[in-house]
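fwd from M.: "can u put these together and see what the complex looks like"

so here's what she sent:
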Amino acid sequence: MAAWGERLAGVRGVLLDISGVLYDGGEDGGTPIPGSVEAVARLKRSQLKVRFCTNDSQKSRRELVGLLQRQGFDISEGEVTSPAPATSLILKERGLRPHLLIHDGVRSEFDQIDTSNPNCVVIADAGEGFSYQNMNKAFRVLMDLEKPVLISLGKGRYYKETSGLMLDVGAYMKALEYACGIEAEVVGKPSPEYFQLALKEMGVEAHEAIMIGDDIVGDVGGAQRCGMRALQVRTGKFSRFREGAVLESEPGSKSQPWPRDLKQTPCSRALLSGG
Amino acid sequence: MAAWGERLAGVRGVLLDISGVLYDGGEDGGTPIPGSVEAVARLKRSQLKVRFCTNDSQKSRRELVGLLQRQGFDISEGEVTSPAPATSLILKERGLRPHLLIHDGVRSEFDQIDTSNPNCVVIADAGEGFSYQNMNKAFRVLMDLEKPVLISLGKGRYYKETSGLMLDVGAYMKALEYACGIEAEVVGKPSPEYFQLALKEMGVEAHEAIMIGDDIVGDVGGAQRCGMRALQVRTGKFSRFREGAVLESEPGSKSQPWPRDLKQTPCSRALLSGG
């Protein structure tokens, strides 16, 4: 117990992943993970700064926040770091005109971007939009460029929806990388620049922050490489079978809800009882 | 010129790639590359043994050979090494029951294979079959296996059809490899076992054979690693822009037909005037 207390000493800010941590997405909008609404409320009543740091690239920030608010979460647009607005800024700064292989839900984030005569490809979690035809179109745009630029909104391998595991943008990024013999630029976790952006927006230094997520690579590994502390929950895509136990708690099934996991660890007390 | 003669000394057998070398595929069945029908006929009139070694995994051998015969090629089923029948043998030998992510055109090659309760995934050039839904289904089968086995019929990056460049199975293989954290087993060029199979079927040793193809990795590199000689044509997916000149001939456009390329090289005389 003392070990956890020491590990969390000096923490001033909490970065929370959204999908698989607060809720499991799905066609019906998804469902909150039991206890997570209350956990966020308690964090917000505490002295800790809270920011939401997602790789969700299917929805605009407005849509995502509206969905979470309807599920009872205390969250506002200004508290969310998400890859589409970050990418939009980069495109403007570098004068890039993207061919967009993205979900319709996030298209509004690129309303102000010139997409004529494309000189790069932006790929996001397009879901059903990842048809062979659409992938081939993005591939041909890249092959026609002398110096192909591929920007990927995150590089997640997969995520969990209520219907089961879903392939994420990272898989399709790898397909285009391989076909074109190039390397994509990633805007999203685990990119250090992306974590730095979230920390800056929260106003907390890396060594004062902890990342809570379900992805051992995107959330935990990425945050740790930036000098942050990190905690993997056992909900969402977490699987003991695939990744082994990360939390110091008793074994549990991969469908355990979030607060039960945290309550099994001294960490939960440190994080959730301080408010 | 003498250099080419020396390089081809002792060659007894010719392995010919099909797509991009003999013909460019397309929705209408594709079109023969000008001069290639006659080039094959001349090779067959020569003392050289000829075998066709393809990574085509969209069509059964019967369908592929029928299509080429209608275009005027002198070719029979027994002269073709292709990945689907080779995979079918492997599945039987190892008692594997595949979930098939393949094109309907090649499904008949797996007629004798038990596909109930799958314990592996076989992926081929599925074309439009590479929908998000189908990819996700294959992904979930792999993730449900304790030791996921993914068999890929070739690992080509792309190929050329009359309508333009098309993503090949290798891109989708990479997507599943990344998502599952596994490495696929490849049945097809440039796998050494596959070239050995083709050589055995032709009855020629590696040092006595030359591979003619349009893919610098799958055809040329793979054959050379097996101890064969290799020649890259300037048709099909060949692009000076992307791969530089490989043949020792004058610069030509990437849409140059096959015999013109070969006629520009001393190699063509060695190969095509011997009959």
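replying to her w this: The interface with chain B takes residues 126-133, 135-136, 139-140, 143, 157-158, 164-168, 170-172, 174-181, 242 of chain A (CB under 8 Å).
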